Fold:
Amino acid sequence: MPRDLTEVGWANWRQATRLVRGGTHRSRFDETSEALFMTSGYVYASAEEAEAAFKGDIQRFVYSRFANPTVTMFESRLAALEGVPFCRATASGMAAVFAALACMVKSGDRVVAARALFGSCHYIVAEVLPRFGVRTVLVDGPDLAQWEAALAEPTAAVFLETPANPTLEIIDIAAVADLAHRAGAKVIVDNVFATPLLQRPMALGADIVVYSATKHIDGQGRCLGGAVLTGDGDYEETLLVPFIRNTGPAISPFNAWLLLKGLETLELRVTRHCDNAAAVANDLAGRGDLDRVLYPGLTTHPQHALALRQMRAGGSIVAFELPGGKPAAYRFLNALSLIDLSNNLGDAKSLATHPATTTHQRLTPEERAAVGITDGLVRLSIGLEDIEDIIDDIRQALDAV
Ligand SMILES: *Cc1c(COP(=O)(O)O)cnc(C)c1O
Structure:
């Protein structure tokens, strides 16, 4: 990837400006909006130029599995937002998680991860990596004593998600990063729930941050995408880039273009998501007839103080537990009329899901119990509709239960 595209003066801009303008690279047609380069390959003026490009003597685009101008604009804008020099976009969030981990571990290595993970992340850590001889240790994320014990031996990588899906438990990134670095591990944080705007894992000691851009970055339910970000030039150059180039999780330029345009409105949307989600959490907490209401912004959240320390706001996801178990949860979900039933999140549309039977169905009942996913638990991704309409819908559905 031509480096100059990542170094166009964004360092002096504030976040909202970086979101609108970071990474923009105009073609010779001087278009206002970022161009969509739907091309797999590139042409050379001469055989000599092709040779020089492949040798690395000149920096230019050679093949879209390696780099593409629209994808590079998306990567540069997201890197500018995160405040790090390196970003690699991938076809999905899971491709980003897998590349971030698989590029750096080998047989005999150890990986320590939090137990409460997005279902497919759990599958990679607990099932795929062990098949290649990587030993995985799972710990309860909020319990620092467990991290300390697990990181008493040399470790290659630490993987965690905070807030975690769907129970919104919070992990102390700075404390875990400190323990991890003493064990020689690189720390990978899945920052999807917080978004780059609410939590800055690199500033807290993380080495690598991964996103499912499918969620808030697109935020409009249109496409899949992912990204791996780092400030570690050695990791990027010797591990991540060769892995991505040669294994091929490249994102379509079209999807990168949607995500690039999604970033322009990210701050506006995330602000509204958080305001709406906080209002829903307060309304649910005020009812008194629910077993648990989980939202990092509520003072009743078990790690509220930590959430305040490492996040700017509580995020867009609220979870709660109905006393009547699965039948009550299903009655609630089936009574919703505005909010859609869907397992996606971070969308403009408010969405509701039943984690125990959908996103976390593959876990055993014991594994679900260990991370607090009960049969009465419902997860709400609060969207951008009028807050009165969202709350009215939730109230009428709870009354129907
Ligand atoms: C959705 C999600 C992923 C996976 O992203 P895809 O884009 O669906 O592949 C990974 N981690 C978290 C926390 C997610 O919410």
Notes: Residues 92-94, 97, 118, 120-121, 161, 165, 190, 192, 212, 214-215, 224, 226 surround pyridoxal-5'-phosphate (CB under 6 Å). Residues 1-6 have pLDDT under 50 and may be disordered. The chain has two domains: 16-264, 266-400.
